[in-house]
């Protein structure tokens, strides 16, 4: 017995809750009824010996009907009074009235004075003036009060239309021909075809096929209503396949939807906060549907780790919140490789920790360089290549691994060479400051100093001795590079042991590793180089025009003597090598 009771209670709890809704009602008490009378639907005529009329006449009377030129007297009986079940008992009602009775001032329910003589066969139709929507309804009832004595060939019919009155279908169940009923009774009709319609209408037709075996009253209608029994909308969130989830993971959220949901309804899966509150829920997935199903949802990657999260499902049309939520779920920490980003280093920068440029990234991962091979987390800009460095996590746990790309740009550092100093003759020729720099400086730099070097040339005749700065601009993040050439001038008389015409020889100073001597018209037969100890050194010389060049590359700084011999003369000059 306990089992039966529990089963009954459970069945009641799971049964859908029905709600009754009135979609249409007409008691004919208003100024303009919601029915159009005497239409041509279903082969009916708008006028004739009978017609539809709305009034509150129930009293019959007598009159005269002329047939074949002979007057006939007739009597129309009273129409039955309405019972208390009708909303406005004995008020206005829709009914058929005979033209003959109306002409005699009798306008209650009658047809051709219930007399088939001199009466043409005709049908008369009254229909609803507007559509009723039953979309979403589980079932629909048409209810009305009616009477009609009629006869075998004189009776009422009820029709329905699902296309706004373009076509009509006779309702034959439970009654096809309404007759043999002189007192008011209520009729309710429910057909599956009534539900789920966007443009439902009903109509009443009186059929008069001419017969003497007929009685009044004619077809009378009152208190027409259309109601729907709908299952109240409800959505129940189903159980998840797992209780532990990772940020960014996909979750299938099942739900059960009951009741009538409108087209375009959206079911949405929502995630609570870490404490299970839906005060500000996070939407994690949705589906447009009017029936049960599953929502493919995604846990946001930014969801904090915690154990108190809940998931529920809501509907939009009508607006409905889930009757329950999932059991609490746990969000565990997922591997995070950081966001794709770009960074640039100067080739002279110190070694860098790549992971420092991926904020928040998990430390359990490895790097792959632009060539596709593994590289350490430390990058040395001096030897590293530009390109994409991929970080792939390799962390413990069930959450999927993550990857991110750090695009590295290695920028070449500017080279301004190595600073030097030169001593030149105050009356010597112009020379290139750039050529005076040591190393391999970039040629794209600019000069600054006490005088303005034109094109990087120093001219002793016009410029001021001092240090001249050479600057090569760096491309960020590389800084500018600088070096200097310090120029000193002196009077270059040298040591002259001139004989005859060799007194015109003159040392012009040092440019780089070259020393230049102005020889004028002298044609040297030999050139010898000595240090101060008198040791003769190997000298590489060349003559161009009136200039003799002595290459002292590799010589240590100091004072040197150069001896120039012609056919019959010898001259010795002193040179200072820096």
Give a structural overview.
By secondary structure, this protein is mainly beta. It has three helices and 44 strands. Strands 1, 3, 6, 8, 11 and 13 form a six-stranded antiparallel β-sheet that branches. Strands 2-7-12-9-10 form a five-stranded antiparallel β-sheet, with no helix packed on it. A five-stranded mixed β-sheet has the order 24-30-29-26-27, with no helix packed on it. A hairpin with a 2-residue loop joins strand 21 and strand 22. The longest helix is centred in the first third of the chain and has 13 residues, at 2-14. It is rod-shaped, with a radius of gyration of 57 Å.
Largest sheet: 6 strands, antiparallel
According to DSSP, the number of beta strands is 44
- Write down the CATH class of the largest domain: Mainly Beta
Helix content: under 10%
From the N-terminal CA to the C-terminal CA, the straight-line distance is 121 Å
- Helices, by number, come to 3
